[in-house]
Amino acid sequence: MTGTLRVAMIGHGFMGAAHSQGWRVAPRFFDLPLDPVMQVVTGRDDATTAAAAAKWGWAESSTDWRETIARDDVDVVDIVTPGDTHAEIAIAALEAGKHVLCEKPLANSVAEAEAMTDAAARAEARGIRAMVGFTYRRVPAATFARSLVADGRIGEVRQVRAEYLQDWLMDPEAPMTWRLDRAKAGSGSLGDIGAHAVDLAEFITGQTIDSVSGIVETLVDERPLLGESVGLSGTASAERGRVTVDDVAFFTGRLNSGALASFEASRYRTGRKNALRVEVSGTRGALAFDLERLNELEFYDATAPETELGFRRILVTEHDHPYLAPWWPTGHMLGYEHGFSHQVLDFTTAIAGASSPRPSFADGLHVQRVLDAVERSSAADSRWVQTND
Amino acid sequence: MTGTLRVAMIGHGFMGAAHSQGWRVAPRFFDLPLDPVMQVVTGRDDATTAAAAAKWGWAESSTDWRETIARDDVDVVDIVTPGDTHAEIAIAALEAGKHVLCEKPLANSVAEAEAMTDAAARAEARGIRAMVGFTYRRVPAATFARSLVADGRIGEVRQVRAEYLQDWLMDPEAPMTWRLDRAKAGSGSLGDIGAHAVDLAEFITGQTIDSVSGIVETLVDERPLLGESVGLSGTASAERGRVTVDDVAFFTGRLNSGALASFEASRYRTGRKNALRVEVSGTRGALAFDLERLNELEFYDATAPETELGFRRILVTEHDHPYLAPWWPTGHMLGYEHGFSHQVLDFTTAIAGASSPRPSFADGLHVQRVLDAVERSSAADSRWVQTND
Amino acid sequence: MTGTLRVAMIGHGFMGAAHSQGWRVAPRFFDLPLDPVMQVVTGRDDATTAAAAAKWGWAESSTDWRETIARDDVDVVDIVTPGDTHAEIAIAALEAGKHVLCEKPLANSVAEAEAMTDAAARAEARGIRAMVGFTYRRVPAATFARSLVADGRIGEVRQVRAEYLQDWLMDPEAPMTWRLDRAKAGSGSLGDIGAHAVDLAEFITGQTIDSVSGIVETLVDERPLLGESVGLSGTASAERGRVTVDDVAFFTGRLNSGALASFEASRYRTGRKNALRVEVSGTRGALAFDLERLNELEFYDATAPETELGFRRILVTEHDHPYLAPWWPTGHMLGYEHGFSHQVLDFTTAIAGASSPRPSFADGLHVQRVLDAVERSSAADSRWVQTND
Amino acid sequence: MTGTLRVAMIGHGFMGAAHSQGWRVAPRFFDLPLDPVMQVVTGRDDATTAAAAAKWGWAESSTDWRETIARDDVDVVDIVTPGDTHAEIAIAALEAGKHVLCEKPLANSVAEAEAMTDAAARAEARGIRAMVGFTYRRVPAATFARSLVADGRIGEVRQVRAEYLQDWLMDPEAPMTWRLDRAKAGSGSLGDIGAHAVDLAEFITGQTIDSVSGIVETLVDERPLLGESVGLSGTASAERGRVTVDDVAFFTGRLNSGALASFEASRYRTGRKNALRVEVSGTRGALAFDLERLNELEFYDATAPETELGFRRILVTEHDHPYLAPWWPTGHMLGYEHGFSHQVLDFTTAIAGASSPRPSFADGLHVQRVLDAVERSSAADSRWVQTND
């Protein structure tokens, strides 16, 4: 490695743990062009932020993100706070000349996302890089799916089905968290997990969604307020609050090629824990990726002899699969957090190589526009709405 | 058995073979209240109809369906012709005092289906029975799924996903058959297979679809005309014709309980051969039925301890599963055509017991109204449309 | 069809039902060279045999098998009695000039099987055909597996794993049936289901087992005697009897190519209902057949590019798959009893074509020798024992 | 944490990478009672060991393991060298008063393993801990399987099937590595992967194997010598060498309860990449663990109503599953190397709590005795051989 990359992370919840693991582990397995230094983590509360620094291995902690991004000894700002704060922090960081990695969704509104994208464009002109964290693109099986499509192995895309299903809100007494508050989260299942389905479907197919027709809906209107946070959820307090985001979203999108894609996002699908599944069907083949079996890819080669047609289960653990070479021997599985190491690899490579990393803020803005179009369609009796890119 | 039931079958294509197998095999395994007699098969062409009679074991053949339904020695008229002829034959048969079993879809239009339903109601008053052939209800795993829902094992239904996916039209040079001609088939994937998805989702949940928003679309506009029929397809002639039906249909339905259901019907989904899948998610559990593994049911009991939650694969081959007792020992599989024996059992039981068989013509009309509403929604920019029951 | 084939069936239990279904259904779907006539069924008890004749569609019933095989109007004797009676009936039938189809296992001992094979050889010289009923060879996916091996698609066979697992004897209070009585059944899991695993592994690989090392064992020594038969089991009487057959059998076999094959037969494997599974691994590929998903075959082509390797799930329901052409369209499943129609096709074809049907009595004798060798090895501290073909 | 635990690792191949990851990551997720310090890594070659230290994050490197274990600033010796060196290093380290973690197999021979176990017993008396690295015990689904058995959820164990299948030696031109050299590796598939199958089957069932009957065999006698190492394999040189270990091992074991267990280890099973699968069948249930889907456990509760019986797929990612609480939310997968963090947790907990960690050297010796008994049985015509514990 020819130099270091000093990182400041803003926020330290679930995503902070995942990002920390990425910064720590990536340099052990990949020959990064720049050596990440876990410089400082920043949060609102002094004690908990200091504890997070100790736990996740950051050299320092701070409670002032503006101070953090002003530091000379910080090269990268890694934003893992709730979506309502992304715009302010990211724009300030870019203007301060820091490379920015921002968790998804890029923002809670199209307007914020546009401002961020503008800021990224201005920064880009000065050699400053910005990337949004749709990490599932970097699960090797998903990356490999994209390359199969790009190589023409499934022919022209004819239909897509993408769904992201969870069930952790099934219990109507599960408490309100910031993820159920529109002011903090922007939207519910739609933005939290539907955003992943949109990004992954577009990433794998190499296409974009031009218009949508859909519906979003809240199934449980009122919940206990959050007592103490535990993991993604927590304990219930005696008071109740109003759920202001959607619980489920169903929509159909028109891809730029004209093909139709069907989407579903729900945190109400009993028995599905983290079921992000994308199926792509084309004129010469088909494939399916499922995050609950993230080391596998189903691939169907329609050009095989009729008697030998079938979906094959590829274990995406070979040396020549994306990102796999430095990890373990064939058949040794990767887990959820490995994508964060791959993200560090790609981001540091882009910074060192002076290239534009993907997914860019413009990519994140586009996803935000799709989500916004879904909400507008839902409000308009499910009429088709342009995503207005 | 206390008497016989003399059957006339109108039509003798793929469905004629399946129905013949039902009439022949059912009395060997079930104690039917009436003994079916395969009296006469009726078709348009003399030679091919006579050949069908010999092949499928009908005592006689005829080319005049009016004459057939007028016969004194016919108790039941079993209609397996394309949908454009259902109304005329079924109404005439009911008026002639014959019990009628009519293949799905009930008709090619709501108007025809209404007329048929009216005729069935008039006949019912005279003790004449009418049933529509949504045979997949009688796959034991599907019937068992309905009983789990009815018994409250999955609680209140919160979400449904139903899809019927095939790929036999992927090849743009596959020839036009009557199934691609709106005049004969009414619609394309929507009526051919989407109808099954609608009926099965409603059957399993015990609910009906009140309104829909959706889109139907033709992917291949023009195809070679059909030369010689082979199975469901055939050889291509040199001339070409215009495809007048949809290839794919995506729609969302609102169930009478308020829950949303997502549907997809396609004969363009590469690698899916006969993939009718219905997933039902409720407050206490979930289940999934898949016709490509028709002897299995996936069931998730959300009331299990957290560490033991999981979809279980039930082999629906136990003595106490629906329809299973007279068949083979546990673990010995049933196939596609067994549903037609179960249909014969249920239909003859209804006739002998003077009860109303289900799915009734009214059920068939309702499905037709759902399909019609999907087409109307598609034409109205996917706005929500009432099914107008 | 150019003539008829008049069939007498001896026995009418579970296997009688399956064979009856084969004789009735096969001529409806296949163009048989000879038209089967279900002439007479023969049993021990007058009333139950007459009832079986009525139920399964045999023209007459009889309680004297010797009389039956002496009839001029009988061309084929189909033996579906317990194994202890096979030799006497089959030899007499062959000597009476009748073609014989005998259920597996061919006999309860090697000596009996040898006598039967000798009788079949003598009969063969006079144009009389004999076949043993290893019907699972005729499940299309199993037949297709054999053709893949024969075509070199998996290269040289290196390893085989075959298991037949059920759990219907798990309950120690499940009553004694003839299948638990050595005098009637010859052996337990070994002969009842292990025989199928042996035959199917040999059939798919095209190889034979030369020697074995293994162990057989009885897990439950004593059970209630059988009260009334119900299906494969029945009610328990108050008296108890001694189980005289094995419950489980584990053995390793050496194939004639030198490759090793691992076998397990058990009616004590909790949760496995009818799990006959054969995995074959070769230098260029691998495959796996599982009777609980009998319409599927798993196939692995090791010559694919490294990144695209994977077991594919072939739905064996295509027109060009073995036996499939006259059945239903692609994706419409077959069940357990379809193999019996295929057996009728192959047997009548052999008779009409004056060729030797397979599996022959010699094939059945070979399986018996393997089973016998397993028992001898078990008695000899699991030393390797030649099968002595 | 109340103190530190200074670790020296001897060896730095594939296993060294995995162990390093465990030492680095465990303290970030678990509240360890002692804080590991990655003090020194020791290898044969100066440059490569220094490179390993840098890559995997060890403070120092050394080429003299005797010097390393003599250091005052080393508390733990972690041995990840080939099996032929384990005994010498481990005994010396224990005698030097260091806690020892030794990769499996414990040794290449029973005699060595006995000496190591004696040394561990002597050290234990002085408060020094020794553990052997059968890490797959610490895959949460495997640990959970053991607890289900211990809790009686499957009743009395009646049958076990354990197999560890890979295919990376299928190619007869794959070069010789130390894993194919009996002097270095002790045995082939048997010790390399069969050892895992033995340990995991015993761990899950809570039983031990008393006697075995089996066969081991070499399928490819001669291979190119190794040029340059790459991952588990490498490039082929022009010279050839003799393979002195087994390629496949098939054996049956008798558990101390009397139940039989069937084993297979093979690096020749086409299409199986890292397929360690253990199935346990009991009087009240059954379960199956498969390393290729390591976040899942199949569980069958035989006490469910007959119509609801079925293997359920439990996603072992819940907060209350073993080891899961500090990792990610439900449905976020773990990978191969997480077991090494769990190993660090358990080992440091034992050291801090002055308890004996498992698997102990005695456990490792027992596995070695089973492997040895398999080889002796193979040499004795597969007769049954006591494991002589």
TrEMBL record, chains A, B, C, D:
Alphabetized Gene3D superfamilies for the sequence: Dihydrodipicolinate Reductase, domain 2, NAD(P)-binding Rossmann-like Domain
Entries under InterPro entries matching the protein: Gfo/Idh/MocA-like_OxRdtase_N, Gfo/Idh/MocA_oxidrdct_glycsds, GFO_IDH_MocA-like_dom, NAD(P)-bd_dom_sf
Keyword annotations: NAD, Oxidoreductase
Keyword NAD: yes
Entry-linked PANTHER family: BCDNA.GH03377 (PTHR43818)
GO molecular function list: nucleotide binding; oxidoreductase activity
Keyword Signal on entry: no
Lineage: Bacteria, Bacillati, Actinomycetota, Actinomycetes, Micrococcales
Pfam families xrefs: GFO_IDH_MocA (PF01408), GFO_IDH_MocA_C3 (PF22725)
Domain GFO/IDH/MocA-like oxidoreductase intervals: 145-287
Organism of derivation: Microbacterium oleivorans
Ranges where the Gfo/Idh/MocA-like oxidoreductase N-terminal domain occurs: 5-126
Name the UniProt record assigns to this protein: Putative dehydrogenase
